[in-house]
Each structure stands twice: as structure tokens, then as C-alpha cells.
């Protein structure tokens, strides 16, 4: 498989910043996925070379927090991103550099909103996946693997080419192949019932596998702690119980 081009690697690094900083800020996964989608929408209209992708990633996370009603203070976003990008430097002091970063983030927010025409309405595929998994009586292992893959899927611009329910089917199908399981009644062709075609599902699987290969991520996120979403103190989230309505509400936020 050919290596990823430089632009794809930079986009992946920027969306990884969104994921990791979002976890440190303890925002819901839906907010993180929204920020990553806004990031992809922005660079679908703007050349990558014209902007600092890491700055835009920071801005998208700030914007997504507002749009998803899970806002984080501007100074918390700035400080957390600064520590993420400069782990060996002392904490940022409230001095001229901080105020410059604050003004830059405010200006960047205006830019991002203008470029995407204020389109911050995002329906991440996770909510669809939870519905499909429950409907097919999927195991917790399959649910955990599917949702981990979906978290990773937001790092590449699948959202620009496929509807969220189709992405959910693609991630779930890849999870079934990696785990060698069949959901529901064991039918291999379950995804047409949820509005996805085989060609779409297979293309999504190929793109996801290409992502894992090109950035040397684990081929099966369910087998590696590094691919699992983490929470406070860097502990992996527990496997979701699909019979738990609290989990469904959490993923649907």
C-alpha cells in the first residue's frame, strides 16, 4: 500500500490534536467528532498551505464546544493546546504571548465560521452506530471495536463523501471482519437494511484500513489500548453496555 501523502499526514496530525486535547478538556466524544468534521469542511474549501492546520484544529474544537453546548473557556483551550504542542516547556503565563494567542483564536474563529458558512450542524455517525448495534443485538466486544473505529474515522475526511449512517455501517462492518463475528442472525448482508450499499461499505473499509496502515496505527483498535478513547487519568473508557439508556443518551449528545 502506498504511503500517505504529506497533506493527509498533516490532516491526520491535526485531527489527532482535536481528539487528544478534547479528551484532556473532558468534552464528549460527540463534540470531538463535530470539531473534526468542521476541520474537514474548512479544508475542503481552503488550501492546506494557506493556514496552520494545528491552529485551525484548535479553533474547530473551540467552535464545536459552543455548537454542541459543551463550551470550554477560551483560556483553557489555549493552555491545553499549548501544553499538548509544547510538553517540555513551562506552562504558559498570562503575558503578551497569551493575549496574542487569545486574539488570534478569536480571529481564527471568525475565519472558520465564514469559510464553512456557519454550517456547524453535524450529526456524527456514532449515534447511528449505537442504534444499529442495539438493533442487531451486537456483543459488547463488537460495540467497543465499532465505536473505537468510528472515533478514528473522524480523523480522515469520510464525512465529506458519505452520510453518517453509511460511515457507521462501514465501521461496524470492518469491526465484524476484524473480530470474525456476524451480528444479529448472522447475515453478512445486514447493512442494506440501514441504507448502505456494499460498494460504499467496502470503500469506507478500504479507506480506514489505509489510514491504519499509513500511520502505523493498530489494524484492530479493539486489540490496542493506544487506539481506545481515554478519559481522565488516561484510563480507557469501559466497554459500553448497549442495554444501558444512559450510554445511548451519552453517545447521542
TrEMBL record:
Coiled coil: none annotated. It comes from the Eukaryota. GO terms for molecular function: cyclin-dependent protein serine/threonine kinase regulator activity. InterPro entries: Cyclin-like_dom, Cyclin-like_sf, Cyclin-Q_first_cyclin_box, Cyclin/Ssn8, Cyclin_N. The keyword Zinc-finger does not apply. Pfam families: Cyclin_N (PF00134). The keyword Mitochondrion applies. Residues 227-242 have a biased composition (Polar residues). Keywords: Cyclin, Mitochondrion. GO terms for biological process: regulation of transcription by RNA polymerase II. Residues 219-253 are annotated as: Disordered. SUPFAM superfamilies: Cyclin-like. Residues 16-114, 127-210 form the Cyclin-like domain. SMART domains: CYCLIN (SM00385). Belongs to the cyclin family. This is Cyclin-like domain-containing protein. It comes from Plasmodiophora brassicae. The lineage of its organism: Eukaryota, Sar, Rhizaria, Endomyxa, Phytomyxea.
Amino acid at each position: 500500500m502506498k504511503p500517505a501523502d504529506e497533506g493527509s499526514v498533516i490532516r491526520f496530525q491535526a485531527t489527532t490534536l482535536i481528539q487528544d486535547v478534547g479528551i484532556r478538556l473532558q468534552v464528549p466524544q460527540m463534540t470531538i467528532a463535530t470539531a473534526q468534521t468542521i476541520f474537514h469542511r474548512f479544508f475542503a474549501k481552503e488550501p492546506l498551505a494557506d493556514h496552520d492546520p494545528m491552529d485551525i484544529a484548535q479553533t474547530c474544537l473551540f467552535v464545536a464546544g459552543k455548537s454542541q453546548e459543551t463550551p470550554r473557556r477560551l483560556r483553557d483551550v489555549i493552555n491545553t493546546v499549548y501544553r499538548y504542542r509544547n510538553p517540555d516547556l513551562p506552562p504558559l503565563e498570562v503575558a503578551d504571548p497569551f493575549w496574542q494567542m487569545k486574539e488570534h483564536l478569536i480571529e481564527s474563529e471568525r475565519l472558520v465560521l465564514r469559510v464553512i458558512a456557519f454550517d456547524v450542524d453535524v450529526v456524527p455517525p456514532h449515534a447511528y452506530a449505537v442504534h444499529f448495534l442495539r438493533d442487531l443485538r451486537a456483543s459488547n466486544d463488537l460495540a467497543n471495536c465499532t465505536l473505537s473505529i468510528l472515533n478514528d474515522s473522524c480523523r480522515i475526511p469520510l464525512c465529506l463523501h458519505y452520510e453518517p449512517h453509511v460511515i457507521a455501517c462501514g465501521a461496524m462492518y470492518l469491526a465484524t471482519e476484524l473480530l470474525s463475528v456476524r451480528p444479529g442472525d448472522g447475515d453478512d448482508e445486514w447493512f442494506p437494511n440501514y441504507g448502505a450499499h456494499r460498494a460504499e461499505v467496502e470503500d469506507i473499509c478500504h479507506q480506514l484500513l489505509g489510514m491504519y496502515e499509513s500511520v502505523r496505527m493498530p489494524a484492530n483498535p479493539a486489540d490496542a489500548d493506544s487506539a481506545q478513547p481515554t478519559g481522565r487519568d488516561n484510563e480507557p473508557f469501559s466497554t459500553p453496555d448497549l442495554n444501558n439508556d444512559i450510554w445511548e443518551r451519552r453517545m447521542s449528545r
